[in-house]
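Just scan this pair:

***
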Amino acid sequence: MKSSAGDRTKRRGLLLGAGAAGAAVLAAKALPSAPTEAVAVAAKPAADEKAGYQLTQHVLRYYETAKV
């Protein structure tokens, strides 16, 4: 059974994608890693009193209009 040109194109695309993914993994492994302490410090969110959920007039109005 012969394969059509569309099947061959799909297989080639799959192989090219797998090759690109492999190259990306190798490149990521080759890059030097950042110290974990610096990453942990950078990942901490700044203390902000206005951060998080707040019950504002806009939210209260939404709750009133969303009642069934």
